[in-house]
Fold:
Amino acid sequence: MSCVRAVRGLAPVCGFQPLAVLSRGVSFSPHQVASDASFHSVSFSESDHPRVLITGGLGQLGVGLAKLLRKQFGKYNVILSDIRKPPAHVYQSGPFIYSDILDYKNLREIVVNNRISWLIHYSVLLSAVGEANVSLARDVNITGLHNILDITAEHGLRLFIPSTIGAFGPTSPRDPTPDLCIQRPRTIYGVSKVHAELMGEYYHHRYGLDFRCLRYPGIISADSKPGGGTTDYAVQIFHDAVKAGRFVCNLRPDTRLPMMFIDDCLRATLEVLEAPPETLGMRTYNISAMSFTPEELVQEIRRHLPDLQVTYEIDPVRQAIADSWPMVLDDSSARSDWGWKHNYGLPELVQTMLNLTGSDSRKARAN
Ligand SMILES: NC(=O)c1ccc[n+]([C@@H]2O[C@H](COP(=O)([O-])OP(=O)(O)OC[C@H]3O[C@@H](n4cnc5c(N)ncnc54)[C@H](O)[C@@H]3O)[C@@H](O)[C@H]2O)c1
Structure:
């Protein structure tokens, strides 16, 4: 069989399909100019460490993940990529490369030229942004995903793709939501994430792709801004509380959603990436830390900032999305299969976020 047949043209076969058949009809010359020509110091020496590429790395989660992975595997073994221009501190902190996941050939060059062995696929349009631009979300979240799947299967990479609480919908059980249940999301973001879960698992069974996936709750971080999701309020409230002493919440006070502090999320990602394959009973796991409502979060923050004023101006798009999502995620499989355990509950989260956002705003005032 030809090595350059598109996966869509394959006749079904039993068992694993050799990875080589996944190659698309893209010509590649070893003499072409490397896409990483701008890096000066990427090490090409052999080592036991994986060579990691993070797509969509300039969003809320990528820079923090790169920092954690660089500590573990070495600065030059972890490449951040995105279509945006990196801020100076990110550019100076380690390798960065432009990569548009819709450009299959460019992505393939980056993987080949940098001997990438793990790919962490973060590029996405999140829930609220996706509803505002469905056709772009379909391109990035679905067409881009297909590029990633083909390239990682073709080159034998380990692939991590985060999924989300948004992969569930109003007909899923909401309290708690198990790993396996009805998934009929009503956002393009959720639909594309269910597609990613299923396609990753399909490529795993059909082609042996080492696909790993965690369904993240809403992630809360201090030094990186959220990118247009439904849980963004739980980040913004800390900045507004510290700076202005007041906050306008766009979700109803009783909207319960699963949430996690960024350090727990990034550690879980590293843990599942490093887990020996035999410990993984599944390829897609729920992970969880806590669930709270805006009202409960406000009460906890008021223990530190008693004068915080909060008003509610409900955004109907975000509220409808939140009302269709899980209230509590059941992550018992992650806990029993590979030992997942969160460190931050609500009190620890609030204390840490207030410390971090408070010191940021003190720094800003001093400058
Ligand atoms: N942040 C959360 O609360 C949360 C919760 C659940 C799941 N996740 C998942 O985690 C991952 C990272 O999330 P995030 O919050 O950092 O997202 P984000 O929206 O902050 O960042 C996404 C990045 O993707 C980039 N991007 C967009 N189009 C691209 C393209 N064509 N090619 C390359 N890059 C492109 C953007 O420039 C952006 O920097 C996503 O897959 C998301 O679904 C996040």
Observations:
- The longest helix spans residues 134-154.
